[in-house]
Design brief:
The chain is mostly helical. Helix content is about 75%, strand content about 0%. The protein has 14 helices and no strands. The radius of gyration is 21 Å and the shape is globular. It starts with a helix and ends with a helix. The relative contact order is 0.15.
Length: about 325
């Protein structure tokens, strides 16, 4: 079901392109987004629990490292292969339709694959039994899961801050304010996304070292994001751009580590806890408008970086 919605949404984009309907395009993207949000909830949950519990903080960051590679490669393919000379033309719209049709076909193949090779279902009872066998531990009622609610708060603040720094128009506008062209800003964003993917691999591998505790690594990364965001808000020119790139780099393992730490010890509440953590990405809809309001009122995207800086500080709670 989680893969069905993205497939349908991608297919709906074809008639939207034929009719040149902006409303149809937005509706198609809404269907895709609805499917991807439920897919992330189930996939992140499954990755967290499909193995030895002591390695849960390692599995998810390493898996998301692959996603980081996709985030780096996809914009480069789009700008330099699919839409290199057809951005604002009818052929460019046709290319969009074919790209989304190809995505729909690929996801449909995944649906067939998972139909014939189904993943095991993990129930709340299974998680409760596992928790009891590990430490004869009963997590108690959901309302008393303080660690989960702190993780939800941290995830909300972190994702909101990340959305300000990582969204292309904010990053590129910051670069333009620092004296770079929009094209140069786009290339610098690609560099930052590449470092983001690389740091995910490095962070995930670092957690395999027994002496490196995931919660301490998370604290260090969030603190460095806070420091670099503060510097990005205070200094001008190339130094500020470098700070923005470093912020993106050290955001790498934060989401996955907060997610898995928030699920630890939940037992029978694991699925519901995972849904709370995924819903906390709604912070990405809160912080960017705040940063945009600051940039509009002050005329400076540099000063708007105080908003994600505050988010990283709040996320360290």
């Amino acid at each position: 079901m989680d893969l069905t919605f993205p497939t349908i949404g991608c297919l709906l984009l074809w008639p939207s392109g034929v009719k040149r309907s902006f409303g149809g395009f937005c509706g198609s993207m809404f269907v895709v987004g609805a499917g991807l949000s439920t897919l992330e909830m189930t996939a992140d949950n499954f990755l967290s629990i499909c193995g030895l519990p002591r390695y849960s903080e390692i599995r998810l960051p390493l898996a998301q490292s692959v996603q980081g590679v996709g985030s780096f490669v996809a914009p480069l393919l789009a700008s330099r292969v699919f839409f290199a000379k057809t951005v604002d033309t009818a052929q460019g719209l046709k290319n969009v339709q074919w790209v989304y049709l190809g995505v729909a076909c690929f996801v449909a193949l995944l649906i067939i694959l998972f139909y014939f090779a189904p993943l095991p279902e993990v129930t709340d009872a299974d998680m409760a039994t596992q928790e009891f066998e590990i430490d004869e531990y009963d997590p108690g009622p959901l309302r008393k899961q303080t660690n989960l609610y702190l993780a939800v708060w941290s995830q909300f603040c972190y994702v909101g801050a990340q959305a300000v720094v990582a969204v292309a128009n904010y990053f590129i506008n910051y670069c333009q304010e620092s004296g770079r062209s929009a094209a140069a800003g786009s290339n610098l964003l690609a560099v930052a996304q590449g470092l983001f993917a690389l740091m995910r691999f490095i962070g995930g591998c670092a957690m395999t070292v027994k002496s490196i505790q995931p919660r301490y690594l998370l604290g260090v990364y969030l603190f460095l994001c806070f420091v670099f965001a503060l510097w990005a808000a205070l200094i001008h020119g190339s130094g500020g751009i470098a700070m923005m790139i470093l912020v993106l780099s050290f955001e790498s393992v934060c989401f996955a580590t907060i997610f898995t730490l928030g699920l630890r010890g939940l037992g029978r509440h694991t699925k519901r806890g995972g849904s709370f953590l995924v819903s906390s990405i709604s912070g990405g809809a809160v912080f960017p408008p705040m940063a945009g309001a600051v940039a509009t009122s002050t005329g400076s995207f540099r000063k708007a970086m105080f908003i994600p800086m505050a988010g990283y500080a709040a996320g360290m709670v």
